[in-house]
Design goal:
- Keywords: Hydrolase, Magnesium, Metal-binding, Nucleotide-binding, Nucleotidyltransferase, RNA-binding, Transferase, tRNA processing.
- This is Poly(A) polymerase/tRNA nucleotidyltransferase (CCA-adding enzyme).
- Belongs to the tRNA nucleotidyltransferase/poly(A) polymerase family.
- It holds the Pfam family PolyA_pol_RNAbd.
- By secondary structure, the protein is an alpha+beta fold.
- It has 4 domains: 1-148, Beta Polymerase, domain 2; 156-235, Orthogonal Bundle (cca-adding enzyme, domain 2), CATH 1.10.3090.10; 244-365, no CATH class; 372-417, no CATH class.
- 53% of the residues lie in helices and 11% in strands.
- The protein is built from 21 helices and 9 strands.
- It has helices spanning 14-23, 35-42, 57-66, 114-119, 142-148, 157-163, 166-178, 185-193, 203-214, 220-229, 231-235, 246-257, 263-268, 275-284, 289-300, 310-319, 322-340, 344-362, 372-376, 382-398, 405-417; strands at residues 30-33, 50-53, 70-75, 80-85, 88-94, 96-101, 106-110, 128-130, 136-138.
- The strands form 2 sheets. Strands 3-4-5-2-1-8-9 form a 7-stranded mixed sheet. A two-stranded antiparallel ribbon has the order 6-7.
- Helix 12 packs across helix 17 and helix 17 (322-340) packs antiparallel against helix 18.
- The chain is elongated.
- It starts with 13 loop residues before the first helix and ends with a helix.
Length: 418
């Protein structure tokens, strides 16, 4: 098969073409590699442009700097130099071959063999190259697989995985983004057989892949196959006895209601609302503090019934974590919408959750009108002041936030006289 990406606007970037020309001079060669070529052929957005070259790293630096580019040796020992032009980075990597792997990282030697460089990559659709004129070079059958949306390891699947066990998660991540139908059988079997290798990976790498997978337009099919292969339990044991069915309704709700794909909310949909377990999950996978806190707050937030009044929800929002309530309401709304296809009562429930979520999204926490100094003027001090202030705040919340400062001071004075 043959193909070109001449229609890709980014390919005609003068700085990219200048860099390619510099690297292609005097018998050397450079090609655009990997994801940019794949996405251009699929009509998908291209964020980063990576370049493969026969130039050794020090020669890449020499040529790029002589042409006025800035260079950063981001991974020089592995052959990668970042070339920067106008604030835009291009990763330029010398052709390589693996000489030793341990399941996490590889020792490489530099070379000039394009086929050998392609064969060290993970999947056929990620091993496509493009020349400066847009001509696509396919050395491992990636074009045919891309056309049929088959995600296939290059060569022997088990060998590719043993080189880096992260490729198990990448298999499902790329399937979620680009695959159709069933995953490649040999790849799926290899992932199932070698899933224990995931324990050798750093938590940061595992979470990074899971997060990217959960950001796919619809990750539900990939999660289903991960469950079938035992990979999901290995990577996310909290999901084992909870199930992944809820994510189907969540994705439909996102599409129907215009919600942005939210990897953390999707994660919440497939794990139990247990604050202790969510804290442990966050620690194990090294989530950021804000990500862990969001999961914990969601899990710790009590369920809201669909028939609750907006006034009552406002009181709960004031006393609780607003983001936790919003996450709860979104998941409950999605679940009710999913059941509504066969249950009229669920349709009414979904309407209630939609009303409450709309209210919660617009709600802003009101300011309590009293301060400690207001009560000091009445002669209240110390612990008594704090207790009275807390009591008055409770009365103010119970009034639907309607009591003003003067009314609250009047209640304070009456309470002191009693």
């Amino acid at each position: 098969m043959s193909a070109t990406i001449t229609g890709a606007s980014w390919l005609n970037d003068p700085q990219l073409q200048k860099l390619l020309a510099v690297l292609n001079a005097d018998g050397e060669e450079a090609r655009i590699a990997g994801g940019a070529v794949r996405n251009a052929l699929l009509g998908e957005p291209v964020a980063d442009v990576d370049i493969a070259t026969t130039n050794l790293p020090e020669e890449t630096v020499r040529r790029a700097e002589a042409a006025g580019f800035k260079t950063v040796p981001t991974g020089a020992e592995h052959g990668t130099i970042t070339v920067i032009s106008g604030g835009r980075p291009f990763e330029v990597t010398t052709l390589r071959a693996d000489v030793e792997t341990d399941g996490r990282r590889a020792k490489v030697v530099f070379g000039r063999d394009w086929k050998r460089d392609a064969e060290r990559r993970d999947f056929t659709i990620n091993a496509l190259y493009a020349k400066a004129d847009g001509t696509v070079v396919d050395l491992v059958g990636g074009l045919a697989d891309l056309e049929s949306r088959i995600l296939r390891f290059i060569g022997d699947a088990e060998s590719r995985i043993r080189e880096d066990y992260l490729r198990i998660l990448r298999f499902f991540r790329f399937f979620a983004w680009y695959g159709k139908g069933r995953p490649d059988a040999e790849g799926l079997k290899a992932c199932a057989r070698l899933k224990d290798g995931l324990s050798r990976l750093s938590a940061e790498r595992v979470w990074s892949e899971l997060k990217r997978l959960l950001a796919a337009p619809d990750p539900s099919r990939a999660l289903l196959w991960m469950r079938q292969a035992g990979v999901l339990t290995a990577a996310l044991p909290e999901s084992e006895k909870w199930g992944i069915d809820a994510i189907h309704a969540l994705v439909r709700a996102e599409n129907d209601l215009g919600w942005a794909a939210d990897p953390l909310l999707r994660l919440a949909s497939i794990v139990p609302p247990d604050a202790v377990r969510m804290k442990t999950l966050g620690e194990r996978l090294r989530l950021s503090n804000s990500e862990t806190d969001r999961l914990v707050q969601w899990a710790a937030t009590a369920k809201v019934e669909a028939a609750v009044s907006e006034g009552e929800l406002a009181k709960r929002l004031y006393r609780g974590n607003v983001e936790g309530f919003r996450d709860r309401l979104r998941l409950d709304l999605a679940a009710a919408r999913g059941r509504a296809e066969q249950d009229d009562k669920a349709l009414i429930e979904a309407g209630g959750y939609f009303r409450l979520l709309t209210f919660a999204d617009k709600w802003r926490k009101p300011d309590f009108p009293l301060r400690g100094g207001d009560l000091s003027e009445l002669g209240v001090e110390g612990a008594a002041l704090g207790a009275l202030l807390k009591h008055l705040e409770t009365e103010w919340v119970d009034s639907g936030f309607s009591l003003g400062r003067d009314a609250l001071l009047g209640r304070a004075a009456a309470r002191l006289k009693a």
